Amino acid sequence: MSNQIKILLASPRGFCAGVDRAIEIVEKTLKKFGSPVYVRHEIVHNKQVVENLKNLGVIFIEELNEIKDISRPVIFSAHGVPKTVPKEAENKKIFYIDATCPLVTKVHKESERHHKNGYQTILVGHRGHPEVIGTMGQLPEGSIKLIETEKDAQSLRVNEFNKPVAYVTQTTLSVDDTKNIIEILKEKFPNIKSSIKEDICYATTNRQHAVKKIASNCDMFFVIGSENSSNSKRLVEVARKSGCSKSELFDFSKKLPINEIIKYKTIGLTSGASAPEGLIRNFISEIKKHCNVSIEEIITTKEKVTFKLPRSLN
Ligand code: SF4
């Protein structure tokens, strides 16, 4: 093998505390209550994680009316659910465990607080993403105005709302894009209220920062993550904007473009918050079959965040 490739490995990368907790909740529920256990929506947006859990006895569903045996527990995914979902479970007497990430719950609580205090709430997020559906479902229908882009923010009219205005955001957005949207909102509504603590979570922020640090030194950049993982897709955008135009999401559903990779000297590598570290190892092993690889890990910060499990699993 004559080719020599350097991999710049971003750190932090991969699983965040919310994903760790959600997977542990499913594993502990299986241990405590046996199988099958239902999980509403993919517990985290990663195919390999979902497949592993299916093999352990998890049945994934999208809505509670798909549950065939209501004596079995159901777990709500890390993305959070509208208030109607636990209500439906209670009405049907289905035992549920909520694996919503505490940082998503924080955004739910902020939205409720703004609403209770008489504010019109604007949510910055991606239409149709389960987290956005969950956050919008914390308030009565029509109470939250969803915007996705700078253009959406620009087209809001100052006199559109006859009450003071507040905003919250999805937790997995691009830090830079969201900053621009918020600047527009602040110009339009100088008294706009924000959350007490930043809504974009620490894991999203740290992973994007790590990518920014190395992208301009890379000829090609790979983000290991699934197509439906919001934070993974944002990492690809960040890598492109930070100087590596050849940045791609890779989920192992297709073959590694090895013929292209071996043309380059430096490859950037990271993984989204829902992608297991084993996939990074698999990626590196695959490249090692074709060239000599040296790895340099660039650590921009160390994470120590952990979340407690729900009391029902203690
Ligand atoms: S990405 Fe952030 S909000 Fe989402 S599960 Fe991880 S820590 Fe929680």
Uncertain runs: none
**What is the count of β-strands?**
12
How is the largest sheet built, in terms of strand order?
A: 10-9-11-1-12
Mean pLDDT: 96
Beta-strand content bin: 15-25%
- Ligands bound to this protein structure: iron/sulfur cluster
Order of helices and strands: EHEHEEHEHEHEHEHHEHEHEHE
- Backbone structural class: alpha/beta
Query: What is the distance, rounded to the nearest whole angstrom, between the alpha carbons of the first and last residues?
Result: 53 Å
Helix percentage range: 25-40%
Instruction: Tell me the major beta sheet.
Output: 5 strands, parallel
Topology of this protein?
Layout: E1 4-11, H1 17-33, E2 37-40, H2 47-55, E3 58-61, E4 74-76, H3 84-91, E5 96-98, H4 102-116, E6 120-124, H5 130-136, E7 144-147, H6 150-155, E8 165-169, H7 175-188, H8 202-215, E9 220-224, H9 230-241, E10 247-250, H10 258-261, E11 266-271, H11 277-288, E12 292-299
Parallel strand pairs: 1-11, 1-12, 2-3, 2-4, 4-5, 6-7, 6-8, 9-10, 9-11
Helix pairs in contact: 4-5, 8-9
Iron/sulfur cluster binds at residues 16-19, 78, 101, 103-104, 171-172, 201, 203-204, 231, 273.
